[in-house]
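Appendix C: a fully annotated inverse folding record. The material below is reproduced so that readers can follow the format used throughout the book. The structure is listed first as tokens, followed by the designed sequence.
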């Protein structure tokens, strides 16, 4: 009997439970995020599909080995990549105001000749910017671990574009793009 009681206590302690949350709220809290992109589904954007055609150089030279899966996302080396525009379909619907989680970073940035330059790092859904930042080069390493409300509404399947234009031999990572999946 004692072993049955211990077994029952152990089993119930191991069951996943929803957080009861604050009893004054409407119900249990939710801790679910849905990935909006898949690190293994990125493909080079066609020039006609690039949401920033004015940034695109006449000749794009960015061989596949310049961007590779790394952690949950991808790593981009601009040593041989003069411009990056990768795309894939949005995995889940996105509504205005949905809570977005984004994780990206870069290593220390330097320009080839040591002069000052500017990089542009962005994510587009369709032709609309979801997130973007301009980075002055040279720069120390930096990371963006952020949550923000979506300025974009789009259906699953809408193209998502990862855009990077940079000067110099630098390393950039795009690790996470997710939406809060709770109602």
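Designed amino acids, in order:
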């Amino acid at each position: 009997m004692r072993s049955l009681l211990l077994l029952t206590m152990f089993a119930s302690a191991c069951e996943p439970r929803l957080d009861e949350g604050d009893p004054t709220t409407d119900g249990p809290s939710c801790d679910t995020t849905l990935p909006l992109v898949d690190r293994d589904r990125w493909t080079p954007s066609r020039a006609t599909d690039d949401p920033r055609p004015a940034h695109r150089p006449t000749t794009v030279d960015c061989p596949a080995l310049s961007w590779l899966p790394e952690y949950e996302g991808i790593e981009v080396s601009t040593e041989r990549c003069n411009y990056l525009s990768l795309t894939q379909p949005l995995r889940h619907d996105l509504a205005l105001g949905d809570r977005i989680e984004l994780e990206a970073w870069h290593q220390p940035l330097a320009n080839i000749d040591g002069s000052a330059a500017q990089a542009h790092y962005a994510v587009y859904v369709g032709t609309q910017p979801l997130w973007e930042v301009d980075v002055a080069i040279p720069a120390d390493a930096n990371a963006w671990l952020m949550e923000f409300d979506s300025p974009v509404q789009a259906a699953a399947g809408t193209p998502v574009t990862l855009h990077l234009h940079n000067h110099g031999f630098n390393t950039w990572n795009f690790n996470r793009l997710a939406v809060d999946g709770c109602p």
